[in-house]
Amino acid sequence: NYYNQGEIRRKELEESCCVLGIPPSDVTVIDHRDLPDDPAVEWDTQLLATLVLKHIEAKNINLVVTFDAGGVSGHANHISLYSAVRYDVCKLPWVPPWAGCRVLVLESVNLCRKYISFLDVLISCLLPRDALFILTEEETEQAKRAMRCHRSQLLWFRQLYLLFSRYLVVNSLRLL
Question: Which residues are the signal sequence here (predicted)?
């Protein structure tokens, strides 16, 4: 609900997921007063970890893909999500619900690599990682269409992201 645009952003998320082929029944929006949509607010790790674990159990999820400790963009909410998943996987005594569920974290890269688009494929292929996803031209265009659904968030710098970001072409991940 950043800038009181919660309902607009919820609809944009639904549109974006539709473009990606994700059915509405597989989309969960958590609207919790203690988890404000704010890039400057760190969320409570234990609360978020509990909510994430409930969702994993309810949907019988066997793979989680999340941000790494850098949150890709330094966004506090993204970093909080990583911390919560890490807390669930590594710290809790009731880890057995995670049995059979693997966690991949998206690698944050430096600013230069972040904005060299497809040229980062060469670098990413040479560096160690547990998984590497290289999108086809069609998949990249689909990802761009999905991002364009988030009209309320398409500020000038996100327009540049659509043009130059390596994350629309290549994503390197590590197992947690």
Answer: none
